[in-house]
Amino acid sequence: MKNEECCDQGTCCDTEKQECPSGIGKEDCCPVEKAKDLWLGSFYAAMKEAQADILKEKIKKAWGANMDKAADAVLEAAGICWSTTLAQAEAKQKLSEALAKIYREGKK
Fold first, then answer.
1. CA dihedral of 6, 7, 10, 12, whole degrees rounded to 10
2. pTM for this model (two decimals)
3. Beta carbons within 8 Å of 19's beta carbon, 6+ residues apart
4. Contact 1, 19 (CB under 8 A)
5. From CA 90, how far away is CA 71, in angstroms rounded?
6. DSSP secondary structure of 39-101
7. Least crowded by CB within 10 Å, which of 16, 17, 43, 70?
8. Do 18 and 6 contact (CB within 8 A), yes or no?
9. Cβ atoms < 10 Å from Cβ of 20
């Protein structure tokens, strides 16, 4: 029996009544089952997003001031680390240029 016939009779994806290509499970063969799975997956994804949004607001309300202070501390420390990294890169570049100049002069 074809998918359309199977689905029209309300027994969609009953593997005994459905002709699916070999190796394909009923959830991948029947468009109704596939649609149902997609909708359920979207529902749970949306539920998770809604829960995260609610928690974000509650976390900000409960710990917002401390989190702002923590963010400031992280930003300050990361800025120092970044500046140090740039200074080290500049020092290495200057050393490379100086060595290249020394070796070029030695060839003359």
1. 70
2. 0.48
3. 1, 2
4. yes
5. 28
6. HHHHHHHHHHHHHHHHHHHHHHHHHHHHHHHHHHHHHHHHHHHHHHHHHHHHHHHHHHHHHHH
7. 16
8. yes
9. 15
| Residues sharing a CB contact under 8 Å with residue 7, sequence separation 6 or more, in sequence order | 30, 31, 32
Tokens representing 17 are 């009544």
Which value, in Å, is the radius of gyration of the alpha carbons in the chain?
32
The owner of tokens 């529902």 is 43
Task: Tell me the pLDDT of the chain (108 aa) as tens digits.
Answer: 444 445 544 555 554 455 566 666 655 678 888 899 999 999 999 999 999 999 999 999 999 999 999 999 999 999 999 999 999 999 999 999 999 999 999 877
**Among candidate residues 1, 38, 36, 46, the one with its CA nearest the CA of residue 20:** 1
Q: Which two tokens stand for residue 107?
A: 């060839």
